[in-house]
What does this fold into?
Amino acid sequence: MIKSDYHSHTSYSFDSKASVDSMVMQAIELGLEEICFTDHIDFTYPECKIVSPYGIAANIAAIRDAAQRYKGQIRLPVGVEIGLRPDCAKIADELVVAHNFDFVIGSVHEIDGIDFYYYPELYENNSKQQAYNRYFEATLQALQVYENYDVLGHMDYVERYAVTRGHYADTALEYKNHKELIDAILRILIDRGKGIEINTSGLAYGLNRTHPQSAIVARYAEMGGEIITIGSDAHSPRMIAYGFDVVQDMLESLGIRYIARFEGRRAVMVGVDS
It folds into this structure.
């Protein structure tokens, strides 16, 4: 069974109000063995300046303090979610090197300096095919110049915001329509020993599938990829481990028997057989 949630946010992220303790207590209540806090470190436009109102040092200190207080009840590896931009590779690397993280998610949250969560231009100015391709192109460009991360976060989540910010009659993102770009991304990940996460936030947002979708997870495994983490992307206690039962079924249907947890940036494989 899936006992580790490897993508969650607290009030140290700009878009969450949850305290570390409230998240930890809920994770314990759910019977998790681990919850990894991966608070956001993104970069402002157009200059690469870290956006972290409370400071990353305070964030890490809070997690380590909680790890001591809840020792024996749950493990709390220290994680971070880095917003990937090709022009910010140097400062991102310096930040990761400077801190003793257990786990680093690399995620693409913006294209050409525009965060499509807040700004609908990506969808307004492009067809669905163009918008989704542009997202995958931006992801590929970032991965080509940056390597200091462990897994690629929510690989196809550009679809999530097309539902509320796009003008498309059908917002579905299908692997077959972007196969060349997606395969190029997966090849970089596999060749560099990186993983993907299965992020359940798509289920929470009513898309009825994870990020990435099952077809992309299957393709990653088919190409030889082995490192997979599971994360809810919870920004509040009630969303911790959301949809993990769905992921359990997905993994079994795809014949994937192991997922990863991390210690000191090293993947530890864990069986998911029920």
Remarks:
- The chain has ten helices and 13 strands.
- The mean pLDDT is 93.
- The chain has one domain: 4-271.
